[in-house]
Amino acid sequence: MKPIVIIGAGHAGLTLAREIRALDKAMPITIISQDPIQAYYKPNLSKALSMNKSADQLIMKQLRALKRDLDAELLENTPVFKISHEKKSILCQARDSENNKQETFELPYENLILATGANPIPLPIKGASGNVVSVNTLQDYSQFRKIIKDKKQILIIGAGFVGCEFASDLSSNGYQVDVVDRATWPLEKVVPEQMGTEIKHAISKDGVNWHFQSTVNEIVKDNQGKLSAHLSNGTIILSHVIISAVGLLPNIQLAKDTGLITDKGIVVDDYSRTSHYAIYALGDCVEYDGQSLPFIAPATLAAKSLAKTLTGNKTKLVLTPQPVGIKIANCPTLICPPHTKEGSWHVNGVDQDLEAAFFNNKKELCGFALSGEKISLKSEYLSQY
After folding, report:
1. d(C-alpha 245, C-alpha 159), whole Å
2. At what angle do helices 63-70 and 11-23 cross, to 10 degrees?
């Protein structure tokens, strides 16, 4: 019997394998990844300093334990470079450690699942190459911890989910942090100005300088390795390390090369099926109803429904509202992003204890954000959907 083959061993891929195995003890499963295969909780990468965790301490399960628990074949450090949907097989590369050569092999599948994730958006900034780091994987985080050792000044480009968490995490651990964003307040796309202002004040308590309505035009490194970021408003920021937190792009190249329908991400139907009947996709590489959802909860829901479909119980994916917690040391925040731009925010509360509801033009609740003590209202808001 041909196996179910999952390309990608991040949260989406491993969760799908776990859900399949819970429903079917015999179905053969193969997981293949171009990276090392280790289970860890990705949102912890932007708050691990405050957790006092090294990269190794963030690992929940190593390869051997995952093989045992999933009763699956796991192939790490093995890129997939071609999918043949006519033959229902993939072509992979693995390094022969004895001869130090790349070996190509073919792997057949019964059903193929793309869980290829997303990559950091490239920065079109002069001097960015080699001078800007992104923290998108455990390996990135391990390298990041080495880079910031004995450093103090850090510049973050981007004031969204990840940028705000890094700003809070680094500043509360003694780093001098600057944040640059073209927006007017933190998390501008998902919270109203009043809440964004309170979040800004909360993070600033630990020493963060904000540079809004600005972009980085150029990055210059001096002979001592110090970096200077030249902003569009004329400001020059000196730093030891520059982090890009401007967002992710779904990793769709393999799907495009295969001829699958893609747009912002891989296009799937209500059952996570791509434009080819035996190929499915889930997680950060997918677009759901025209939008990318690079969060843990949607990937988990997709894995649960797809596992049922793949084991014979065809199940539609229903993406229920799933609030995202933002770890900000001085202002706990919970956001359920609006799924439309057409509408307006309604805010209640004082100081950082705020509740904000986003209503569309039909007066329907389409999103909300809670901060401070108001996060206790989470269940009340979810019940209104």
Report:
1. 7
2. 30
CA distances from 261 to 82, 121, 274, 303 (A): 16, 21, 7, 21
DSSP 283: G
Are 63 and 130 within one domain?
Answer: no
Interatomic CA distance for residues 167 and 228, integer angstroms: 19
Q: 17 with 290: CB under 8 angstroms?
A: no
**Number of H-type helices and E-type strands within the chain:** 8, 27
Count CB-CB contacts under 10 A for residue 90.
23
SS3 95: strand
d(CA 24, CA 382): 33
269 within a domain of the structure (yes/no): yes
d(C-alpha 203, C-alpha 199), whole Å:
6
Structure confidence by residue, pLDDT tens digits, 227-239: 999 999 999 999 9
Please report the DSSP string for 134-188 in residue order.
---SHHHHHHHHHHHTT--EEEEE--SHHHHHHHHHHHTTT-EEEEEESSSSTTT
Distance in angstroms (rounded) separating the CA atoms of residues 279 and 257 = 14
Structural domains counted in the chain: 3
Mean pLDDT confidence for 311-316: 97
Domain of residue 29, residue span: 4-119+249-310
> What would the two tokens of residue 148 be?
């910031």
How far is 31 from 327, CA to CA, in rounded Å?
31
Q: Is residue 329 one of the residues assigned to a domain?
A: no
**Residue-wise pLDDT tens digits, 179-197:** 999 999 999 999 999 999 9
